[in-house]
Amino acid sequence: MRNTAKLTTAVLAAGALTLGLTACGSGAADTASDTSGPLVVAASPTPHAEILTFVKDNLARKAGLDLEVKEFTDYVLPNTATEDGSVDANYFQNQPYLDDFNKKQGTHIVPVVTVHLEPLGLYSDKVKSKDDLKTGATVAVPNDTVNEARALKLLDAAGIITLKGGADNAATPADIAENPKKLKFKELEAAQTPRSLEDVDAAVINGNYAIEADLSPADDALAVEPAKDNPNGNFLAVKEGNEDDPRVKKLAKLLTSPEVKKFIEEKWSNGSVTPSF
Questions:
Q1: What share of the chain is helix, strand, coil (3-state, %, to 5)?
Q2: Contacts 24+ apart (CB under 8 A), 17-20
Q3: Which of 17, 50, 108, 175 could, after both became Cys, cross-link 240 (CB 3.0–4.6 A)?
Q4: Which among 63, 92, 82 is positioned nearest to 19, based on CA atoms?
Q5: How far is CA 127 from the centre of its chain?
Q6: Digits of tens for pLDDT over the chain (277 positions)?
Q7: Is-contact 264 116, C-beta < 8 A?
């Protein structure tokens, strides 16, 4: 039985405020985790919390790890909660997103071990092929810096648009060199992109939100991000200085175990989640 605590943005707003009040005087080494209690890990509900719950229910006790999973429904609070010590670690993000977040928020979060990839996909309720997108069609994309750039790179790789040379992980629609279908872009919070399918012609959706919306990259996507040499693997992360916490090391080992690899491959056999180890 799942034993996770689901937290919403509203419930955790106080934690974010605490970070804002204390961040000016805090550095990477200012806080040290209490390693005597359970390891509290913030995670997106799908697939991160599901993977952690598998570890908790099947592997953690034998490894001597007391693991607590807290579900967060956005991409901001897991990092701020890790920074201010409300949780010990998080598992929801990739390196380009973390680099951008640390730079903008002044946080000190670092990766520990990469676990899986959720390929980004282009989905539509209106057309069956990317070639069927009409001139002037509206495409929803995530509005956070890194995922928007990742979405545009997917559209570029699919031959739908062409980005300017040198477009990086901060690319926006302003970096489009060629847009033959004169597509319009609707920038939305990543979690809202699946719900936008009724209102737009297509949407680029992050893998975890696609899973929650019962969308399969293999069966439903008009275009899918390639898995090979992909820098967007999702990892376990902690505040800098806590990498050697023995509880973190135990979890890192369990998350990259043969048992977890088998669990991921069997549960998401449609390719919506793939092991990165």
A1: 40, 20, 40
A2: 18/84, 18/86, 19/80, 19/83, 19/84
A3: 108
A4: 82
A5: 27
A6: 333 334 444 334 444 433 443 333 334 444 455 677 999 999 999 999 999 999 999 999 999 999 999 999 999 999 999 999 999 999 999 999 999 999 999 999 999 999 999 999 999 999 999 999 999 999 999 999 889 999 999 999 999 999 999 999 899 999 999 999 999 999 999 999 999 999 999 999 998 899 899 999 989 999 999 777 788 999 999 999 999 999 999 999 999 999 999 999 999 988 889 999 9
A7: yes
Beta-carbon neighbour count of residue 212 at 10 Å?
A: 16
> What is the per-residue DSSP string for 127-143?
-SSGGGPPTT-EEEEE-
Q: Do 67 and 42 touch, CB atoms closer than 8 A?
A: no
Six token digits for residue 8: 């919403």
CA distances from 101 to 14, 137, 169, 238 (A): 19, 31, 12, 14
Alpha-helical segments (H) within the chain: 9-22, 50-55, 61-63, 77-84, 95-105, 145-157, 207-212, 217-220, 246-255, 258-267
Strands 176-178 and 162-163: antiparallel
Query: Is residue 22 packed enough to be buried (19+ CB in 10 Å), middle (13-18) or exposed (0-12)?
Result: middle
3-state secondary structure of 48: helix
Whole-angstrom Cα distance, residue 92 to residue 257? Answer: 18
Quote the DSSP letter at residue 164: P
